Amino acid sequence: MNIGLIAHNAKKMLMQNFCIAYRGILVRHSLYATETTGRLIEDAANITIHKYLSGLLGGEQQIAAQIENDDLDLVIFLRDPDSIDSSEESIHQSIIRLCDIHNIPLATNLATAELLIKSLERGDMEWREIFK
């Protein structure tokens, strides 16, 4: 499965810890992230990540395009709702909207991310292959 990983600055360490904790599951899948988040995850969890541009330089738009093309099966977007500014809000809403349109499971917090990753481990996400 193709998994998109996005984290706001305040949530990057949480994303690193999440990827360390679930490394055994994540290494069996193709992972995509923005440049900074991807580099931090690679360094912390020793996982190979396909990295796009930095979020502010268009990486989030690249992930949004991947979602729009139905090329991602799961997105983990650890957002910091207290630090979102208006210039970033439209792309964040676009990512959420595209996941809804294309029926792509989306986690925006740690609790939901853990539920989705455990579901992935159990094989509950295989419906995505049929859906495509």
What is the annotated CATH architecture? 3-Layer(aba) Sandwich
Beta-strand residue percentage: 5-15%
Q: Tell me the helix content.
A: 40-55%
- How are the strands ordered across the major sheet? 3-2-1-4-5
CATH class: Alpha Beta
Task: Please give a structural write-up.
- This protein has 132 residues and is of the alpha/beta class.
- The protein has a single domain, classed as Rossmann fold (3-Layer(aba) Sandwich).
- The protein is built from seven helices and five strands; from the N terminus they run βααβαβαβαβαα.
- The protein has a five-stranded parallel beta sheet, with helices on both faces.
- Helix 1 packs across helix 3.
- The protein is globular.
- The mean pLDDT is 91.
Write the layout of secondary structure elements.
Blueprint (H helix, E strand, L loop, with lengths): L1 E6 L4 H10 L1 H4 L3 E4 L1 H11 L4 E2 L7 H10 L5 E5 L7 H16 L4 E2 L2 H13 L4 H5 L1
Parallel strand pairs: 1-2, 1-4, 2-3, 4-5
